[in-house]
Amino acid sequence: MATLYERLGGDGGIAALVDEIVEAHMQNPQIKARFTPYRDDPVHLEAVKGHLREFLTSGSGGPGDYHGKSMREAHRGMNISEAEYMAAIDDILAVLDRHEIDPQTRQEMLGIAYSLKDDIMHV
After folding, report:
1. N or C, where is the chain less crowded by C-beta within 10 Å?
2. pTM of the entire structure?
3. What's 113's domain CATH number?
């Protein structure tokens, strides 16, 4: 059976997913205020996307290790609400749907997202 990394399309697939997920967050009325400032700082935006690509690549069985902050460190002080967290999850699932990611892979991605919930919300 293919790894999650392979099912997501490897480096190219993950890069496309991250780009679209971040863009979806920037359009989502519930969370766009947290993401649209990145548009004015393209260097920071690319750094954030790079960390997300590395995190997803490493966490899905791809090559290399993740070198960024832990989820708890990255979200500390942001006080993300459950509504904001769910809005982000909805964006992720919508992007996976657009990429015609199979149901099992979508379920695994959802499982990963939910496993990180306590490290993202209200920290």
Report:
1. N
2. 0.91
3. 1.10.490.10
